[in-house]
Amino acid sequence: MKNKLLSIAIPTYNNSDFLPALLETVKKSIKNYESKVELLIVDDGSNDGTENIVKDFSNQHEWVRYICKKNNGISASRNTILKNINSKYLWMIDADDLIHDNSVKKIIETLEENKDLEILNFNFTIFNKTINDKLKFNDTNRKLINLEHPSLWSRIWKTDLIKNFEFPVGYIYEDLAIIFNIYAKANKKHILSIKDSLIYYRINRISIMRSLNNKNIFEIHEILKIATENLNVLDEKTLYQIHLIVFHSYYIFHLKTFTYKQQKQEIKKNLKIMKEKFGKKALKIEKGSMSFRVKIGFLFIKFHLFFLYKLLSIFSNRC
């Protein structure tokens, strides 16, 4: 398969319940752009029929590539993707998400209009079971690093920029380990944000419940250590903001799977870690560093108003 402008890459493991729906949205979105786009699916040794789904789909479309490998985790799958990308740009999405009908059209047009682009940020829509069960969210026009939602799937990456990074194997927050580094390496003049919502991000409650526990929650801090220990280009203030925003962003999504008592315990543990690392300035919020919603959340935490923080987390996924 000759080099394309864009590769849409999907790491998957036992996602047979969700993958067919995603593939249909990809097929619909890619229509008329087959010469410029490829789909790369990396299967982490699924045993639920994923292989048959992908092979049937790839037999119908020559723009699909399929790699099946030994099971060793999502990070290894992402690393396999980076080693097998030939296109100029990469869009790495999750197997349980969906993309909009006009996503590929908008991306291709934007990339062709901005030849030197290194990172393209765009909006997304959060949903539960169906795309009609939408949860409005806006994620556009953040500063240097899109701190509030540092995700792979809401960005298009220049392959030459990302391919030399490696995801740490064995962590569930593997994307955090390299995103900040990629942004630090990118030419800030070649980063663009658009207002269009191009992907539906699924809140997969079952997946969250299976993967999260006390150890995994606090892997966030281990990942942030990996991510920031070599970032000499970022000052201490920026590093602090990274920790602060990631803490809030991931907790506000994931803590709702815990009981109220567990939430209080986890937040207190996290605050202790923050204070040990940053001293008295832990939870200090710099002007313009985050949205109003996030600021309110941290005020609730700062004064131990955990019940109000819980209400905010519920509201944030319904507004």
Commentary on this structure:
The relative contact order is 0.11. Strands 1, 2, 3, 4, 5, 6, 7, 8 and 9 form a 9-stranded mixed sheet that branches. About 6% of the residues have low confidence. A hairpin with a 6-residue loop joins strand 6 and strand 7. The protein has 2 domains: 198 residues, Spore Coat Polysaccharide Biosynthesis Protein SpsA, Chain A; 109 residues, no CATH class. Helix 6 runs parallel beside helix 9, helix 9 runs antiparallel to helix 10 and helix 12 packs antiparallel against helix 13. By secondary structure, it is α/β, with parallel strands linked by helices. It is 44% helix and 16% strand.
User: Architecture of the largest domain, CATH level 2?
Assistant: Alpha-Beta Complex
Total DSSP helices: 13
CATH class of the largest domain: Alpha Beta
What's the total number of strands? Answer: 9
Succession of helices and strands: EHEHEHEEHEEEHHEHHHHHHH
Task: Give the structural class.
Answer: alpha/beta
Radius of gyration: 19 Å
- The CATH superfamily of the largest domain appears as Spore Coat Polysaccharide Biosynthesis Protein SpsA, Chain A
Give average pLDDT, whole number.
77
SSE topology sketch:
Elements (H helix, E strand, L loop, with lengths): L5 E7 L6 H12 L6 E7 L6 H11 L3 E5 L5 H10 L5 E4 L5 E2 L3 H11 L5 E9 L6 E2 L19 E4 H4 L13 H10 L5 E12 L2 H7 L2 H4 L1 H10 L7 H19 L5 H19 L13 H11 L3 H11 L3
Parallel strand pairs: 1-2, 1-4, 2-3, 6-9
Antiparallel strand pairs: 4-8, 5-9, 6-7, 6-8
Helix pairs in contact: 6-9, 9-10, 10-11, 12-13
